[in-house]
Amino acid sequence: MLSETGTQFFGYYPGTVALVTAEHDGICNVMAAGWHTALSAQPPLYGVLVGRERVTHPLISESGVFGVNFLPAARAREVQGTGVLSLHDLPEKDKFARLGLETLPGAPLALADAYLHYHCRVIQTVPTGDHDLFVGEVMEVRHDPAFYDERRLFTGEAAVYLGRSSYVKTTQEREIYPPESFE
Ligand SMILES: Cc1cc2nc3c(=O)[nH]c(=O)nc-3n(C[C@H](O)[C@H](O)[C@H](O)COP(=O)(O)O)c2cc1C
């Protein structure tokens, strides 16, 4: 039974956490975003919600570009770390080095261990209460074939965020509901 708990929402996880990357004026950063979504297939648009106090926020708004990265379950600790540590507080001003995250040569917004990466150009910024929705046109997609089958169905092990710093791993056991099962 549902019980009323006021207006402070919680518990809408489980969900995946994206790592949003951005770079401007020689500063490169990465942060966890549980609030992210595909917005359009044609043109391909992807949105991330970023609080205005995040170091990542001005890096995106000033460069007009951001990366969206998805890391496998084996890197869930690092995913969480990017959301607990802020570049505001890191004396060395390098969250990548602190967490042992590497980027691809020539693609500073693409995390080397990601199974999926979108390179996005900001086409719209929508204020939403205490966050801004950066609407990105997806300019480039990279994926690691080791995590997908020949139909590009995800077959790897992903980390699913439950809230409160907790993650579970997806398993290989699946239930499949093809369209014909509804005829
Ligand atoms: C699992 C998780 C999900 C998060 N999701 C978001 C989000 O969607 N948007 C946001 O602005 N901050 C989110 N945060 C908080 C930021 O990741 C966090 O404030 C981070 O330290 C910002 O880094 P920065 O200041 O270096 O940019 C999340 C944190 C965690 C741990």
UniProtKB/TrEMBL annotation:
Domain of life: Bacteria
Keywords: Flavoprotein
Keyword Disulfide bond listed: no
Coiled-coil segments: none
Pfam families registered for this protein in UniProt: Flavin_Reduct (PF01613)
Domain Flavin reductase like span(s) in chain numbering: 10-155
Cofactor: FMN
Stated family: Belongs to the flavoredoxin family.
Protein name in UniProt: Flavin reductase family protein
Organism the protein comes from: Deinococcus arenicola
Lineage per the UniProt record: Bacteria, Thermotogati, Deinococcota, Deinococci, Deinococcales
